[in-house]
What we know:
Layout: H1 4-18, E1 36-41, H2 55-59, E2 67-68, E3 81-87, E4 91-99, E5 119-125, E6 133-138, E7 144-149, E8 159-160, E9 169-175, E10 187-195, H3 196-199, E11 213-222, E12 225-228, E13 231-234, E14 236-237, E15 242-243, E16 247-250, E17 266-274, H4 287-308, H5 315-318, E18 329-334, E19 339-343, E20 350-355, E21 360-364
Parallel strand pairs: 1-3, 1-17
Antiparallel strand pairs: 2-16, 3-4, 4-10, 5-6, 5-11, 6-7, 7-8, 9-10, 11-16, 11-17, 12-13, 14-15, 18-19, 19-20, 20-21
Amino acid sequence: MKRLIPILLIVIVAACQSAPPKDVGQLNLPAFAPRHYICYRASEPLNIDGELNEAAWQNAPWTDLFVDIEGDKKSAPALSTRAKMLWDDEYLYIGAYLEEPHLCASLTERDAVIFYDNDFEVFIDPNGDTHGYYEFEMNAFNTVWDLLLVKPYRDGGPPINNWDINGLKSAVSLKGTINQPDDIDEGWFVELAFPLDVLREYCGGVDAKAGNQWRINFSRVQWQYDVIEGQYKKKINPETGKHYHEDNWVWSPQGVIDMHRPETWGFLQFSDVVAGEGEEAFVFNQDELVKWELYTIYHAQRLFKNHTGAYAKSVHELSAVHLPELQYVNKIATTGSLFEAEASRAESEFNWHINNEGRTWKMKK
């Protein structure tokens, strides 16, 4: 019998290791389908006046119409919104048109929380690692709020509110009358020029040049209003006594009500083709599928830790959150409070990594 004890222990340990992990929740992530846009060169310097009437703007394609931030989970927005982009050696230009029958705004101080008004928002992550990205908001008064995010709020932020985009140019053009409820308006145009040298400050060396791709997204916040004593007032939900929640309409859907998931933003591809003088195809980098699988691991680890108090030490253990089939993840390493995962595809020259703060990076094989 003494000889059987080690054998029995081995069998018991092996059985424990192969046993399916306890179910700790359902991982729900959107399908990976970011939109993309070819950003052509401006044929001439642009006058930032909100009109978008230069030939370069006329030749630049519009994005698809904005959709609800949750994508197909919600119905299409009641009002249309779309954007377009251009660039030259000095600026990234962004134009947009927001259909709006009731133009209104209240905030006039720079760096106020602009989304308390109806607004237009821009999010830019030049190197696509989800850390060190820019957020910009503006209302129909052309009041702006620009801030830098060291990392997403889910990972602790923080937002740096006293950071300004030096040299920023912004303008609006109103097609109607603002804050006058007794008429019906058409909408408003937005025109922006972001200095590229400022956007390079925190982007990890990914320049704006032909062929390079940045992650970018746009959002429109839209509130419900009543007219009370001749003024627009946010509509109150009688059941809660509070304002109705705002609508969030975006270019590339997030799948959840959270703009601060840079891994789901769209792709901006720079082109040296002058707008109107030709077309260029979008080139999808297959390594983005590797990165998305790593983001799947990241979100799964967060869910796992919320339920168990610790990160999973293996893909097998992590399957407790109902992981989709994985193709690229090679290994997961954990400590008491940290984790790192590695993934790659055979055709790539890079191994990709992600850590518990959601930052991705690559290393040559």
